[in-house]
Amino acid sequence: xxxxxxxxxxxxxxKIHHNRWFIWAIVVxxxxxxxxxxxxxxxxxxxxxxxxxxxxxxxxxxxxxxNRLGFAMRHPNNWGIESTEENIVEFxxxxxxxxxxxxxxxxxxxxxxxxGTLSVKSEKSIMVNGNSARxxxxxxxxxxxxxxxxxxxxxxxxxxxxxxxxxxxxxxxxKVVTPKSN
Length: 182
Prior knowledge:
Elements: H1 2-11, H2 20-52, H3 56-60, E1 61-66, E2 71-76, E3 79-85, E4 88-93, E5 100-107, H4 111-116, E6 119-128, E7 131-139, E8 145-153, E9 156-162, H5 167-171, E10 175-176
Antiparallel strand pairs: 1-2, 2-10, 3-4, 4-5, 5-9, 6-7, 7-8, 8-9
């Protein structure tokens, strides 16, 4: 019995690190931070995939056809359409004026002149609705970046440009069309 009492008296002398709560707080904070960063990374990947998915225009898009310029495409339903010049049509979000996609139509021989106005950072070949095209990444006058697609078809040069997150979705619906007869 004496021996048990001695052990009980010794229990309060067990050495416990004086910073144990601080160490636990650091461990818990680290676990929470790693979890939060993982969640943000996965969420942003899913959001980017959602924005680039062409089907977004199937449910919420509006068909646009310009017989005079010879093209058709779909755009988000909350976007407005403005024709700034007779050969340029702009599609823009009425709530975010930075989201603009424009389509300009020139003669096929004007490609060198169009390229001369651009500050090209990179260029690659792409297909737009079965047609060979060139995708350029260009620096804007404001210092930002935008995508410009040059498509030669039927003697016309279609210049599609914009920096919108919907650019890829809208571009996937772009078609060169034959004007309807009146």
